[in-house]
Design a protein that fits this description.
The complex is a heterotrimer. By secondary structure, chain A is mainly alpha-helical. Chain A has one domain. The longest helix of chain A is centred in the last third of the chain and has 32 residues. Chain A is globular, with a radius of gyration of 19 Å. Chain B has 2 domains: 224 residues, Rossmann fold, CATH 3.40.50; 98 residues, MTH889-like domain (Alpha-Beta Plaits, 2-Layer Sandwich). In chain B, strand 1 and strand 2 form a beta hairpin. Chain B is globular. The relative contact order of chain B is 0.13. By secondary structure, chain C is mainly alpha-helical. Chain C contains 11 helices and no strands. The chains are: A mainly alpha, B alpha/beta, C mainly alpha. Chains A and C meet through helix 2 and helix 8 of A and helix 2, helix 5 and helix 8 of C.
Chain lengths: 260, 332, 281
C-alpha cells in the first residue's frame, strides 16, 4: 500500500510540471463559474464555485487516475504483476488513493488561493466540521474510484469514453457548484435520490453546510454517517468486484491480454 | 559505393549528430553509397550502429546534420514532398496500425493519404494480401491479428502506394520462421518483378544473406565494408574456425594475442556444458595456433572444424567482435 | 480530388476513433451527455444564483443566453482535443510517422480529424441544447425564450460553418504543440478549453472582463461565433449578426494562417530534432 502510494507521489512530485498541467481546467473553470456568479449579481455564492473548483480536482483525479488506472496498467502489462504479487489488490488501490489525494492537494490549494485572492468568498466555517467532512468525502469518493477501477477492467478501450461520459453528469448531479439536494435544488425528488447515491453529492452538501452556513458536526452528522458507510461499503465492493473480475479473467484467459 | 544501372538512392558523406548529455552523439559519420533500381540493399550492423538513423533520414523523418541524400533524384532535405511521393517504409519493431479498425480498412486509409482512388486501392490491397497470405484475415480488427499477420499487414501497407523505393527496418524481427520466409519471398518478388528498390536495415545476417543483392556493413555510424554478400564472404576465403570448448568459458581473451586471428565471437551452452567459439583467421597456421592457445589454458577442445565465412564472420573480421559483443561493449 | 481524399479518409478515421468502440447510435448518444450536463450546470448556477441572491434578479432571457452560450462553448471546446488526441494516438500506435511520410503528410490528417469532430460535435451540441432546454423548462418551471425558425436555424448553421477556419486554426495550433511534446500533450487543450470558458463570452458578456482583456476577448473568432449563433436564436442579446459573422470569418482566417505557419514550423523542427516518430510518455 505504502509502495503504491509512494510510486504515485514520486510520479507526481518527481515531475513538478504535472501539478501545473493538471490544475489548468479546475482553475479556469472555477474562475469562469465564479465570474458567472459575480456577473449575475450573486457574488455571495462565489464561494460555491471556488469550492467546486477544489473538489473537481479530486473528482478528476478519481476518474482519470483511479478509475481508469488499472485499464492503463493492463495496457502497460503492469496489472498482471499486481495480480501475481502477494500484496492484496485492495492495498494497491488504497495506496493509489492516498498518493492521488496527496498529489492533488497542490492543485486544490492553487484553486483555493486564486479564488480567495480574486473573489474573497464569504465564509462562515466550523473548521472541525469542514475538515471531518472533507476527509470523509475524500474517503468515500476515492472508495468509489476504487470500485470504478474494478469495473473498468471489464471494459476495453471504452474506459476513456466512460470517463468522459461520467465526468460532467456527476459534476452536475453532485452539485459541485450549486446545491443539488434539498429545497434549493432544481432537481425533482427522484433525481435528488439518485444523485444521493454518489458520495460527492452528500459530501458537497455537507461541505457547503459546514463551510458557508456555519453548521457544526452535530448538524451534519447524518451526512457524515452516510459518507462513512459509503466509504466502507464501496471499499468492500471494489475488493469483491476485483476478485470476481480476476476470476473471470483467469477463466477466460484475458488477464494478460491487452485490452483496446 | 557504386551500383549498376539507374540509381534510386544516392547518399554522400551523410552525417547525423544528436545532442548528448556532454558531447554530441554521432549516429552517422560520413556515409556514402549508391543503390540501383530494383536492388535489395542490406544495411547490416549491430544495434546503435546507425542503420535506423539512415533510414529515418532517407524516409524524410529526420534531417541530416551534414552531407546529402537523394531518393529517385530528389533531395531528402530540400524536396521532402517529392521524395514522399515515391517512397514508403515499414518497421518490424512497430506493428503500425489503428487497433480499432480492420486490417483492410487500415490499408485503405493509408492508400487514401496518397490520393489513390478507392477502387484502385481495394484492388491493390487484395493483390498484396494475396501475395502475403493475409486475405483471410483482412477483416479482422488490427489488434486481433497475431504478431505475424500484423506484420504482414504492415508490410502490405508499405507497398500500397506502389513506391519506387521502400525502406524496411528489421521487417521480420520477432516473427516465426515460416512468416519471415514468406515475407522475404514477397520482398524478392517486389524487387525482381516490379523493379522496386528495397533498403533493408537489419542485424539478421541470415536474412540479409538470403535476399540482399548488396550489403553495406555499418558500425559506429560508418560503412566499414560493402559489396554482394558472396563477395564479402569470399573475400575471407574459408577462414572460419569453429571450436567447441569444455568447460564453458566466459572469455577467450587468449585468442586476441594469437597472430593471424582477426576476431572471434563466443557463446555458451550450459546444458551441453561447453562454449562455442567462432574464430576468423587469416591462415591455416593461425587456426592451428588458435586451437593450441585454447588448449594451453587447460581447456578441452571437444570438436573443431573449418567452414565458409558468414556475414557475421565478415563483421567479426572487420571489427574483431560479433554484433552481440559490440552492443554489450557500447552499453559498457 | 487527390487532396480531398486524405482529408475525407482522415475524417472517416476520426469518426471511427469516436464510434468504433461501440455502436454509432450509442456513441453519439454518449457524446451528448457531457455538453448536456455542462449546459445544465451553468444554467442551474444562473437560476440558483439569481433566485437565491435577491428576488427579481432572475431573467429568462439571460437564462437562455447562458444556456445557448454554454452549449456553443462545448461545441468549440470539443475541437480543442481532436488534433492532440489524433497525433498522440498516432504516435503511440506508431502510425504517425507513416502518415508524415505520405505524399500529403500530416496537415491533411489533422484537418480531416478536426472536420470529423465538427460533424459529431454539431450533432451532439444540437441534441444537448434541445435536451437541456426541455429539462430546464421542466425542472425550473419556466418558459425559456428561443427563436427557432427556418431562418434562425439557417443562421446558426452558417455561423457553425463560419467557425470552421477558427476551429481548424485552433486544431493546428494545438497540433503543433503535440507534434513536439513528449509528455502532458493533453494539458494544453485543457487550458484552452478553460480559457475559452472565461474569455469567449459564452457565460457572461466579455464586457464584464477587465479592460484590456475584454477587448481581446471580444475579437476572438470563437467569441464572435458564439455571439452570431446566439443572436440568431435570441435576437437582440448578442450584437449584430452580420458583424459577428464577418469578425468570426476574418479572425478565424487570421488564426488559421498563423497556426498553419506555426504547425509547419513545428513539423520542421520536429524533423530536425528527430521527434516525429518519438512515442509520448
Amino acid at each position: 500500500m505504502k509502495a503504491r502510494a509512494l510510486v504515485r507521489l514520486w510520479s507526481i512530485f518527481g515531475e513538478p510540471l504535472w501539478i501545473v498541467v493538471s490544475m489548468g481546467f479546475p482553475v479556469l473553470s472555477s474562475l469562469a463559474l465564479s465570474l458567472l456568479y459575480y456577473s449575475i449579481g450573486a457574488a455571495s455564492y462565489v464561494g460555491f464555485a471556488v469550492l467546486g473548483g477544489v473538489m473537481v480536482s479530486f473528482w478528476g483525479n478519481v476518474l482519470w487516475s483511479m478509475a481508469s488506472q488499472f485499464y492503463w496498467d493492463k495496457q502497460e502489462g503492469l496489472f498482471e504483476i499486481y495480480l501475481t504479487s502477494p500484496a492484496p489488490i485492495s492495498a494497491i488501490l488504497i495506496g493509489m488513493s492516498v498518493g492521488g489525494i496527496i498529489g492533488t492537494v497542490p492543485s486544490a490549494l492553487i484553486v483555493t488561493g486564486i479564488g480567495w485572492v480574486l473573489f474573497h468568498p464569504a465564509v462562515n466555517a466550523v473548521w472541525g466540521g469542514v475538515i471531518l467532512t472533507f476527509g470523509l468525502t475524500l474517503a468515500s469518493l476515492y472508495a468509489m474510484g476504487m470500485t470504478l477501477s474494478s469495473l473498468y477492467l471489464a471494459y476495453g478501450r471504452e474506459a476513456e469514453s466512460l470517463n468522459e461520459v461520467l465526468q460532467e453528469p456527476v459534476s452536475m448531479l453532485s452539485g459541485l457548484y450549486f446545491p443539488s439536494l434539498g429545497a434549493r435544488s432544481p432537481f425533482p425528488l427522484a433525481i435528488q435520490a439518485a444523485a444521493s447515491l454518489i458520495p460527492l453529492t452528500i459530501g458537497m452538501d455537507a461541505l457547503r453546510k459546514t463551510l458557508f452556513y456555519g453548521n457544526d458536526i452535530w448538524q451534519v452528522w447524518p451526512d457524515l454517517a452516510i459518507l462513512g458507510v459509503m466509504a466502507v461499503v464501496l471499499l468492500f465492493a471494489s475488493t469483491y468486484a476485483l476478485k470476481y473480475l480476476e476470476n473471470v479473467g483467469r477463466r477466460d484467459g484475458t488477464i494478460g491480454v491487452r485490452i483496446r | 559505393m557504386a551500383s549498376k544501372g539507374t540509381v534510386s538512392v544516392e547518399v554522400s558523406d551523410l552525417r547525423r549528430e544528436f545532442k548528448g548529455k556532454g558531447s554530441p552523439v554521432v549516429a552517422l559519420d560520413g556515409v556514402s553509397l549508391k543503390v540501383g533500381q530494383g536492388e535489395i540493399f542490406g544495411v547490416l550492423g549491430p544495434n546503435g550502429a546507425g542503420k535506423t538513423t539512415m533510414i529515418r533520414i532517407l524516409s524524410t523523418l529526420l534531417l541530416p546534420t551534414g552531407g546529402w541524400a537523394k531518393v529517385m533524384g530528389f533531395d531528402v532535405e530540400h524536396e521532402p514532398e517529392k521524395v514522399r511521393r515515391v517512397i514508403n517504409m515499414a518497421s518490424g519493431a512497430e506493428k503500425a496500425g489503428y487497433d480499432f479498425i480492420s486490417a483492410k480498412k487500415n490499408l485503405w486509409f493509408f492508400s487514401q493519404l496518397y490520393g489513390i482512388p478507392t477502387a484502385t486501392a481495394e484492388k491493390r490491397i487484395m493483390e498484396l494480401s494475396e501475395m502475403l497470405g493475409l486475405t483471410k484475415y483482412l477483416d479482422r480488427k488490427f489488434y486481433a491479428l497475431s504478431t505475424g499477420y500484423r506484420q504482414r499487414a504492415t508490410i502490405a501497407r508499405a507497398f500500397v502506394n506502389e513506391p519506387k523505393v521502400v525502406f524496411l527496418d528489421e521487417p521480420t524481427i520477432g516473427l516465426d520462421v515460416m512468416t519471415a520466409r514468406s515475407i522475404r519471398e514477397f520482398l524478392k518478388e517486389q524487387a525482381r518483378r516490379s523493379e522496386r528498390t528495397i533498403i533493408l536495415a537489419s542485424h539478421n545476417m541470415a536474412e540479409v544473406e538470403a535476399i540482399c543483392d548488396r550489403v553495406a556493413i555499418i558500425d559506429k555510424g560508418k560503412i566499414i565494408a560493402a559489396g554482394t554478400p558472396e563477395d564479402l564472404m569470399r573475400s575471407l576465403g574459408a577462414p572460419a574456425l569453429v571450436m567447441e570448448v569444455s568447460p564453458p568459458q566466459s572469455g577467450f581473451e587468449m585468442l586476441s594475442r594469437v597472430e593471424g586471428v582477426k576476431g572471434f565471437t563466443a557463446s555458451t551452452e550450459e546444458e551441453r556444458g561447453l562454449s562455442t567459439v567462432h574464430i576468423v583467421v587469416e591462415t591455416d597456421a593461425a587456426a592451428r595456433a588458435a586451437e593450441d592457445a585454447v588448449k594451453r589454458e587447460g581447456l578441452k577442445v571437444v570438436a573443431s572444424w573449418r567452414k565458409q565465412a558468414t556475414l557475421e564472420e565478415v563483421f567479426v573480421a572487420l571489427v574483431g567482435r560479433g554484433f552481440k559483443e559490440r552492443e554489450e561493449q557500447d552499453v559498457v | 480530388m487527390t487532396s480531398l481524399r486524405p482529408i475525407l479518409a482522415s475524417a472517416w478515421m476520426g469518426i471511427q476513433h469516436d464510434i468504433a468502440w461501440t455502436t454509432p447510435v450509442l456513441s453519439v448518444a454518449l457524446r451528448v451527455v457531457a455538453p448536456f450536463a455542462s449546459a445544465m450546470t451553468v444554467s442551474i448556477i444562473y437560476w440558483f444564483g439569481t433566485t437565491s441572491a435577491s428576488p427579481g434578479l432572475f431573467n429568462a432571457d439571460r437564462l437562455a443566453y447562458v444556456l445557448i452560450g454554454s452549449t456553443l462553448y462545448a461545441h468549440v471546446a470539443s475541437y480543442a482535443w481532436v488534433p492532440t488526441v489524433a497525433i498522440a494516438e498516432g504516435k503511440n500506435l506508431s502510425v504517425f510517422p507513416h502518415i508524415y511520410i505520405t505524399s500529403r503528410s500530416t496537415a491533411f490528417y489533422v484537418a480531416g480529424t478536426v472536420l470529423s469532430s465538427f460533424v459529431i460535435s454539431t450533432i451532439a451540441s444540437v441534441a444537448a441544447l434541445i435536451l437541456a432546454y426541455l429539462a430546464l423548462s421542466s425542472f425550473l418551471g419556466t418558459q425559456i425564450p428561443a427563436t427557432v425558425t427556418l431562418t434562425s436555424v439557417a443562421m446558426v448553421a452558417a455561423a457553425l460553418v463560419a467557425n470552421i477556419p477558427g476551429a481548424l486554426g485552433l486544431g493546428f495550433l494545438l497540433g503543433a504543440y503535440s507534434m513536439y511534446a513528449s509528455k502532458f500533450e493533453w494539458s494544453l487543450p485543457g487550458y484552452v478549453a478553460g480559457l475559452l470558458m472565461v474569455f469567449s463570452g459564452a457565460l457572461f458578456p466579455t464586457s464584464f472582463l477587465p479592460w484590456p482583456i475584454s477587448v481581446g476577448a471580444q475579437y476572438l473568432p470563437f467569441t464572435q461565433f458564439i455571439a452570431a449563433a446566439r443572436e440568431a436564436l435570441l435576437p437582440g442579446t448578442s450584437g449584430d449578426y452580420a458583424t459577428s459573422m464577418g469578425l468570426c470569418l476574418v479572425g478565424g482566417g487570421i488564426l488559421l494562417g498563423v497556426s498553419m505557419f506555426v504547425y509547419f514550423a513545428s513539423e520542421r523542427k520536429a524533423r530536425k530534432d528527430g521527434v516525429i516518430d518519438r512515442r509520448l510518455a
